[in-house]
Each structure stands twice: as structure tokens, then as C-alpha cells.
Design a protein that fits this description.
The chain has 829 residues and is mainly beta. The protein has 4 helices and 44 strands. Strand 7 and strand 8 form a beta hairpin. Keywords: Differentiation, Disulfide bond, Glycoprotein, Membrane, Neurogenesis, Repeat, Transmembrane, Transmembrane helix.
Length: 829
């Protein structure tokens, strides 16, 4: 037979098809595929179809040559029923049961939509019925798809006679074969709902096994997924068993995913073969030994298994001792939410193995066991214990992860943190190497958090030499403040010394020359001279000052022969005076009566106050006063600060509130707000982060006293005062402007701003006097412009606008416009 194909470059025959499977049934070959639907005129979608051709098709003659003449296709429907059905459009896999004339199909949603999958089954009779029905035909690309009757409703691949050019051709018309190939009706599944449906997963392959149960045959479906699992489910139209999952087998290690590419059943070996990318797995169809008790055996609802009462175990019907003693209870879906803890199976025999620690492989012996007796399910606990044992091999030691860093050894200043690890992950065994590296690490910390500097005085120096050898002196000693200059107390200390009285020292000054002081009547003269005697208790005689004055007087006669006679007067008491002197030898006079100014001096600093904060940065202070001595009588005041402050407790707080911020500006509601922050986080602080208070009363508001204090009707606010001021200013400006305009008009009248009317009946007398009494009306300048229309002013004029007995020496002819102007209007009052 010649090779045949569908019409080339005709998307109505096939449009981007993806073939899934093909089966030969009688005289027909059924091809299952999915393609882009040409009859769907609202966007783009994919439909699943089954195409049918006759096996004896030889193509056409002249028309449709080398092309199928029996090609027909119909849409497969697999959906969830409802007012708005949910369709599974894309066919992924099929399985044909010839004994049942059933074709199972795996359907999924489109690749760009939410993942969902379903399994539907179709009868061959339903497929044949659709192919015997009407076609859908489109006359041209602009027309709609319409249903047209099938000219051969029961076509069975019959052929025409052997003679003639059309010998061996099918009896179908070539014209019909060229345009009629899409069936109008949709092939429906055996049930209105899918046999199995699951969201958030995509099925990939499907095989079905027919199992003989105690009372009936069961169709057991094995469905492969893209995650690498195999779902075992029942296919039945019984509502109580509809969509039953028997189990889901995970074939790959945890965390690994790989799609199932192929599934095949080998009945002779009672096994299921699973094809992956790089390997093939073999799984037994029945695993009745996984159910150790009667309850778990019957509760699994597995068609392969039943409880053998005689052998007291779960077995297949073929392995049972007697059919009468073998029971099965498949009346409902298995209880999938039964919790079952996992249990280890027996250890496998010891086998040689290698242990690779990354630096070399060592020969060992190993054995394995699996957590499958039973396997944990429905949240059951996993097996607790090792799944592999290794013996007779060395094992190198390995470090555990580093422990967290310990707390810093200091709260301020340079410290260190420590972390450790141990060589027991694993510990070296059987001659294995110990761990290489440090088991302890240290690092610096708090290197940017200096401690507050300790403030202390040094020891006192030795006392200095006494300032005086007698009469009372002082000696001093000093000390200095370490690590700063903020130590409490004074750096200087004084102590009295040499308090014993000094010896008395006396000293006389030399005599002064004789000086005449008096002349008598007889011509004799009186002369005097002086000296001072000083005495004091002083350690140094050179510090002696002048004291009492001693005066000597002598009388000298005028004859020039008689010697002068001397009188000695030392003190008022007359001691050492051979002759008594009359009068006081000492005279005193006040001078500089003003009080001496006293310059102020600082007292010693007081002790430092307590720190204002225990952490986070506070301050303390100390004070001194200008009272040592206080300034008096216009003396200079003390120069310098009377208060000193210094930072303290600058280390960060472990947690708690900070200080309140300053009060913010008043808002529209008359409130002030201030805030504070939590140093360590909101969880460690108790209280509010903000605080508010009413604003203090404003002094700018002026209130007028009234009988009711709660009423504000009689008060003036700041807004009223501002408004009054602005209004007064605007009024003053307008009044000034009016006065200015008035003065301008009075002193400099415009010739075009007035129309003059004589007050007499005769407007213009023949003989004009020098002064003619007139009256005028002030008008707008625009009223007398020549290019405007004639202005009409109503009469009579108001009295307030008329000015009488006004004299102008200028004749009327002075004005720029003529009295005969058509735009002149006279107004008589």
C-alpha cells in the first residue's frame, strides 16, 4: 500500500498536533492526539481528539492522491460537571483494555494554567457513535462552523468494485473526504465525573490492571506523576468507591523530583516497571505482607489482598489456603487518615563497602535496613535509629559547628569573646585522623566602647618652707588630679606655722639738721631737730617702719657768744626730757577717707554631684562661689565659670526608656507633644512613647471682662485686632487717595472735565464782563471725547454736584471743543 498522509498545509486537518497513542480496532486505526482547535474562534486553546482512518485506505485518484480519504476526527471531553464545567483539555497518556472495549486517558490542564489532572474512560461504542453522527463544516474562513448531515452514517471501510480506475478505493466520496472530517458531536466518558481527579499535580502516564477479587473484577490504575510518584487507585462507577486512592508510592529519595516517563505491567512476573530518565524500577503489583493485622489488611481495600483466616495473614487470592477462609471488604475507600508509625525491617546481610571522607576511601563492611515494616503514614512517627551500620573501617574525626560567641569579657573597654568546637562529628575511630585546626577562637570586643576614665588625686607633696620664721606664717602642699582635671576638692592646702612671737626690734633714725622754729623779741631764736624711734616684733629688722618722732629744741641767744640751750622732749610723758615741753609733740591729720576696694576671689570647688543617668550618657556638676573674699567697694568680680559639668556613665544602656524630648509646638487642637525612645526595643520598655499636655495660655489674646467667664462673645482675639488694623490701614489709604484727587481737581482743573453753563437766561451776552458768574457740573472726561457716542446725563442734576458763583476770567472760546458739537448736552439745574 502506498504511504498516505493528511492534507499538507491545511490546518483544518491537523493544527500543531501532538500524538499520544494509536490502536488498531477491527478495520479502523484510532489515533489519540491533542492539537490547537481550529473551530475555537475566541483566542487559542488546545483540544484532545481521537482520529480514525480505515486500514484499507489507498488514497484518492487525481483528487486526494497519496492522502487519507477516510480521515475523521472527534473531540474527547474530560471535565468536571457543573453550571460552568471545568475542562481538562490536554491528553497526556492512554491505555486500551481490549477485553472491556475501554480506553483510559490521562488529561491535564493547559501548561500555562493551574496544575490539575484527571482520568476518564471512554467506550469504543461511544466513539463509533460520534463518528457515525453529523460533521462540522466551514464553507470559508469568514463563515461559521455549521453542522451538516453525515452522507454515510454507518461507514465500515467498504470499497468499490475492483474494475475501473477507482478499484480498491473506499466507497466514501472524495469530495466529502476533502471537506468533511471534523465531527460535530463530542465523545463523552463513561461517567459524568472523572474516575480520578487531583489538583496541584500533573499526571504523566497510566496503566490499568484487571484484578480478580472475591466477588468481582476490579480495575486497578497505576498513574505516574511529574513528581516521580506512582498513584494506585480504583476505577469503578460505584459512588462509594469513586476516586479511591489506595496508596501513593514515592520512588525517589526525599527532595528529589523526576517525571515518570513510562509504565508497563508484566503479568507473568506480577510486576510494574517504571521508566525514568536514567533507570528502570521494578515494583511488585501486590505487597500484602505490608499489612500485618486483619484490621490493616481489610482496611487497605486493596483488590490484590485479603485476610486468610486459616493462615492468619494477609495474602493474595492465589496464595490463600481456601477461598472460604479468604475474606475481602472493598465497600468503601480506605481510611487514608489512619496514623501508622514506622518500623524497621530486618538488617540486610553485611556487605563490603567503602567509606569516603573526602580525602580518601577506606574499605569497610556495611549493612542496611529500611523503615518499611510498616512504613510511616498519615503523620505517623518515622523510624528512630540508624538505617546503615559500618564496621571494621577507620573513621577520621570531624569538627562540630562553631558554638555561638560568648558574652564579651568586659562591659566597657577592650575585651574578648570566645567560641569553641569539638572533634566529635564524628569522633575519630579505628585509627582515623584527629581533627586539624583550632578548637577555640577568640576575638576582640568593645574596642569602640571606652570605659569612663577613673578620676583620683595623687598623694600630697611635702609641705613647703614656712613663709615666716616667727610671728605666724603658713606653709603649703599641692596634689594633682590623675586622668583629667575634674577631681572633687582643692589641689592646694595651707597650714599655719611658726606661731611664736618675733623678738622686739628698735631702731632710731638719724637726727635731722637744726631748723629755726621761733624768733623771740629779744632777738633770740629757737631751733629744733627730730628723729624717729621704731620698734616692732619682726623677724627681719629691715622690715621695721617709722614710728614715734622725737623732737629736740634749743634756744640760741642773739649775742652770738652764749651757747644754745637744748630741751629734750621724747614723749608726752616727758621721759628722758630734762625740761618739760609745752604742747603735743605729734600732730595727726586724716587722709584718703574712702574705703579700699576688695577684689573678689573664688572659693574651692564643691564635690561632684551624682551622675544624672546610670547609663546611656549622663552628666554631673560642681560649683564654686565668689566669696573668698566677696567683691566689695567696687572691687573686681571673679573671672571664670561658677559651674562645671562633665560627662559620666557613657556606656550604652541594656534597655529602658531614654530621656523625654523637648515639648513640640502647639498644634491646631491646643496640645503639645513630646516623645521618648526605648534603648533596647519596645519589648523591654513599659509605658507610653509619647506624652501630651494642654498648651500654656497665650498672652496675645485680649479679652473684655464680662459677667460670664465661659462666654467668649465679649472678647477680642488676636484675629480681631489684626483685622481691625488692616481695615484701618485700608481706610486710611482710601481716604488719602480721595483727598489727593480732590486737591488735584481744586488746584489744577482740567479744561476737558467741566461743561460751563451760564446762570442767566441769556447764555452768552453780547457784552461780556470781565467776570461772569457761571455754574459748572463735573463730568467724566470720556463724556466729551469726540470719538465717543453722545452721552446723555439725566436731568436735573443733583444738588450736591452743582457749584455756583464760580468765576473764571477765561472766555468760553478757550475750550478745545465747540459749543456747536453734536455731542454737547446742556443740563439745567
Amino acid at each position: 500500500m502506498p504511504p498516505l498522509r493528511t492534507a499538507q498545509y491545511n490546518s483544518k486537518w491537523l493544527n500543531e498536533p501532538h500524538f499520544v497513542s494509536a490502536y488498531e480496532v477491527g478495520r479502523f486505526t484510532y489515533v489519540f492526539l491533542r492539537e490547537t482547535a481550529v473551530e475555537y474562534d475566541c483566542g487559542k486553546t488546545v483540544f484532545s481528539r481521537v482520529a480514525r482512518v480505515c486500514q484499507n485506505d489507498v488514497g484518492g485518484r487525481f483528487l486526494l492522491e497519496d492522502t487519507w480519504t477516510t480521515f475523521m476526527k472527534a473531540r474527547l471531553n474530560c471535565s468536571r460537571s457543573g453550571d460552568v464545567p471545568f475542562y481538562y483539555h490536554e491528553l497526556q497518556s492512554t491505555f486500551f483494555l481490549p477485553e472491556q472495549d475501554l480506553i483510559y486517558g490521562v488529561f491535564t490542564t493547559n501548561v500555562n494554567s493551574i496544575a490539575a489532572s484527571a482520568v476518564c474512560a471512554f467506550n469504543l461504542s461511544a466513539i463509533a457513535q460520534v463518528f457515525n453522527g453529523p460533521f462540522r463544516y466551514q464553507e470559508n474562513p469568514r463563515s461559521s462552523w455549521l453542522s451538516t448531515p453525515n452522507p454515510m452514517p454507518n461507514f465500515q471501510c467498504g470499497t468499490v468494485g475492483d474494475s475501473g480506475p477507482a478499484g480498491n478505493m473506499t466507497e466514501r466520496s472524495l469530495q466529502d473526504a476533502q471537506r468533511l472530517f471534523l465531527m460535530a458531536e463530542v465523545i463523552q466518558p463513561v461517567a459524568t465525573e472523572p474516575l480520578v481527579a487531583q489538583d496541584n499535580v500533573r499526571f504523566s502516564k497510566l496503566v490499568v490492571d484487571i484484578v480478580q477479587g472475591r466477588d468481582t473484577l476490579y480495575h486497578v490504575m497505576y498513574i505516574g506523576t511529574e513528581h516521580g510518584t506512582v498513584i494506585k487507585a480504583l476505577s469503578t462507577t460505584n459512588k462509594s468507591l469513586h476516586g479511591c486512592y489506595l496508596e501513593e508510592m514515592e520512588l525517589l529519595p526525599p527532595g528529589q523530583r523526576e517525571p515518570i516517563l513510562n509504565l508497563q505491567i508484566l503479568h507473568s512476573d506480577r510486576s510494574l516497571f517504571v521508566g525514568l530518565n536514567s533507570r528502570v524500577l521494578k515494583i511488585p503489583l501486590e505487597r500484602c505482607s505490608n499489612y500485618p493485622t486483619r484490621q490493616t489488611c481489610l482496611g487497605a481495600r486493596d483488590p490484590y489482598c485479603g485476610w486468610d483466616h486459616q493462615q492468619k495473614r494477609c495474602s493474595t487470592i492465589e496464595d490463600s489456603a481456601s477461598m472460604a477462609q479468604w475474606t475481602q471488604n472493598i465497600t468503601e475507600c480506605p481510611m487514608r487518615n489512619l496514623t501508622q508509625d514506622g518500623g524497621f525491617g530486618p538488617w540486610a546481610p553485611w556487605q563490603p563497602c567503602t567509606h569516603d571522607d573526602g580525602e580518601g576511601a577506606n574499605a569497610c563492611v556495611c549493612r542496611l535496613r529500611s523503615c518499611d515494616s510498616p512504613a510511616p503514614q498519615c503523620g505517623g512517627a518515622k523510624c528512630n535509629g540508624p538505617t546503615i551500620e559500618v564496621a571494621n573501617c577507620s573513621r577520621n574525626g570531624g569538627w562540630t559547628p562553631w558554638s555561638p560567641w560568648t558574652q564579651c569579657s568586659t562591659s566597657c573597654g577592650m575585651g574578648f569573646e570566645v567560641r569553641q568546637r569539638s572533634c566529635n562529628n564524628p569522633a575519630p575511630r579505628h585509627g582515623g585522623r584527629v581533627c586539624v585546626g583550632q578548637a577555640r577562637e577568640e576575638r576582640l570586643c568593645n574596642d569602640k566602647t571606652p570605659c569612663p576614665v577613673a578620676v583620683s588625686w595623687t598623694t600630697w607633696n611635702s609641705w613647703s618652707k614656712c613663709s615666716s620664721v616667727c610671728g605666724g606664717g603658713v606653709h603649703s602642699r599641692v596634689r594633682s588630679c590623675e586622668n583629667g582635671n575634674n577631681c572633687p576638692g582643692c589641689p592646694l592646702e595651707y597650714k599655719a606655722c611658726n606661731l611664736e612671737a618675733c623678738p622686739e626690734v628698735r631702731r632710731n633714725t638719724p637726727w635731722s639738721p637744726w631748723l629755726p622754729v621761733n624768733v623771740t623779741q629779744g632777738g633770740a631764736r629757737q631751733e629744733q631737730r627730730w628723729r624717729y624711734t621704731c620698734r616692732a616684733f619682726l623677724p627681719n629688722p629691715h622690715e621695721l617702719q617709722l614710728g614715734k618722732r622725737k623732737t629736740e629744741t634749743r634756744l640760741c641767744p642773739n649775742d652770738g657768744i652764749t651757747p644754745c640751750e637744748t630741751d629734750v622732749c621724747a614723749t608726752p610723758e616727758g621721759r628722758n626730757a630734762p625740761y618739760a615741753c609745752s604742747g603735743s609733740p605729734v600732730e595727726y591729720q586724716d587722709c584718703n577717707p574712702q574705703t579700699c576696694p576688695v577684689k573678689g576671689a573664688w572659693s574651692c570647688w564643691s564635690s561632684w554631684s551624682e551622675c544624672s543617668a546610670s547609663c546611656g550618657g549622663g552628666h554631673y556638676q560642681r560649683t564654686r562661689t565668689c566669696t573668698n573674699p566677696a567683691p566689695k567697694h567696687s572691687g573686681d568680680i571673679c573671672i571664670g565659670l561658677h559651674t562645671e559639668e562633665a560627662l559620666c556613665n557613657t556606656q550604652e544602656c541594656e534597655g529602658g526608656w531614654g530621656v523625654w524630648a523637648e515639648w513640640a509646638e502647639c498644634d491646631e487642637d491646643g496640645l503639645q507633644v513630646r516623645a521618648r525612645t526605648c534603648a533596647a526595643g519596645p519589648a523591654t520598655c513599659v509605658g507610653n512613647t509619647t506624652e501630651q499636655r494642654a498648651c500654656p495660655p497665650q498672652e496675645s489674646t485680649v479679652l473684655q471682662p464680662g459677667s460670664d467667664r465661659s462666654s467668649r462673645c465679649a472678647g477680642f482675639s488676636l484675629f480681631h485686632l489684626v483685622l481691625t488694623g488692616v481695615g484701618g490701614f485700608v481706610g486710611a489709604v482710601l481716604l488719602s487717595l480721595l483727598v489727593y484727587l480732590y486737591l488735584q481737581k481744586v488746584h489744577r482743573p482740567s479744561q476737558e472735565s467741566a461743561v460751563i453753563h451760564p446762570s442767566t437766561p441769556n447764555h452768552l451776552p453780547p457784552n461780556n464782563d470781565k467776570y461772569t458768574p457761571m455754574e459748572f457740573k463735573t463730568l467724566n472726561k470720556s463724556s466729551i471725547l469726540p470719538d465717543e457716542g453722545c452721552n446723555f446725563f439725566p436731568s436735573p442734576l443733583q444738588q450736591t454736584n452743582v457749584y455756583a458763583t464760580t468765576y473764571y476770567p477765561t472766555p468760553l472760546g478757550k475750550y478745545d471743543f465747540s459749543l456747536d458739537s453734536p455731542c454737547r448736552n446742556y443740563m439745567h439745574s
